[in-house]
Each structure stands twice: as C-alpha cells, then as structure tokens.
Write the structure tokens for this entry.
Amino acid sequence: MSIKHGLLALLQDDPKYGYQLRGEFEAATGATWPLNIGQVYTTLTRLERDGLVRAASSEGDGRSMYEITDAGRDELANWFQTPVARESRPRDELAIKLALALAVPGVDVSAVVQRQRMSTMQSLQELTRQKRNSAEGEISWQLVIESMIFGAEAEIRWLDHCEAMLLRHRGKPRPAPQRYDVPDEQEARS
C-alpha cells in the first residue's frame, strides 16, 4: 500500500491534521503498518507540491489542516480502480534467502527452512489469537489480519514445498556455476 494513497483516502471526507491522519491510518490498518509522523508530513508536502492536497487552514501554532483537491480525488479513484501488480510488490526476502542458501557452500538449507517454518507458525498463532480477540464491527482490521493470516498460511505451504524439493534433490551434485569468460581479442576476431 502506498502512504500517499492512504492519506488521500483518509482526506476524502474532511480536512485533517497530520497527527489525525497518522492515527486514522494506523487505526484503519490495525497498526500493522505504523507510520512515523515525519513520513506523514513528508508525504503531505509531496502531495501538496503535486496538487493532490492543499492546506485548508493554519492555526497560530503552525499546524495546518489538509484537504484533498479534485486532482487528488481523481488520483484516489484511479488507484482504487487499478489492480495491484504482483511485480510491483516488495522483493521476497525469504525466497532470496533460500536461493542464496542453496548457492553458498556449507549452509544447512533444511535448517533455514525449519527455522522459518517455526517462526511463521508462531506468527500465524499470534495472528489467529488477535483475530479471535478483535471486535466484530472492525471490518477494516479484520480484512488486514485475514490477509496476514492467509499470507502466513501460504508461506508455510511454500516452505513445505521447498522442503520436498530439497529432499528430491538431496544427493544430486550442485550444478557448476556459470562462467562468463570474455574472449580475448584473437578469439573475438575469428
């Protein structure tokens, strides 16, 4: 999720101060993505520069309320209408970690998988406990927590798959690393 679009969504109904936006953002996402107040004001400055918000009023203490502009409403509507592309999501550190563990001699890849599975299962248990304890009417929080639960369940299934692949390939020699030899001048001419 983009902080930019999150703030625009929160400004949809009425003007707000930066601290209000931070609190409402965290409440809407169940504090799964805590925002630093500096992030909020930096983002508001960029949104104002781009004509998507404007200062609605300013108090004597220097605090400004921000409101969404028509261009900001158009940007927000476009964001809601556009699917999130899989390739635009952050890199999967776990997949990269396992790929590198396979490439580095001496790393017990099975142990890496087991430790990750144990950690993910603990997270899944905690998420399930949080879901069970959440209030019935908190639908935005329930959507976020269920997304996290589904993600943890999928990660555990993927780790099971990785372990099965490791077992199938155990004992097979690792392929030699590819060499990228640069031909010398005489070979290049022939």
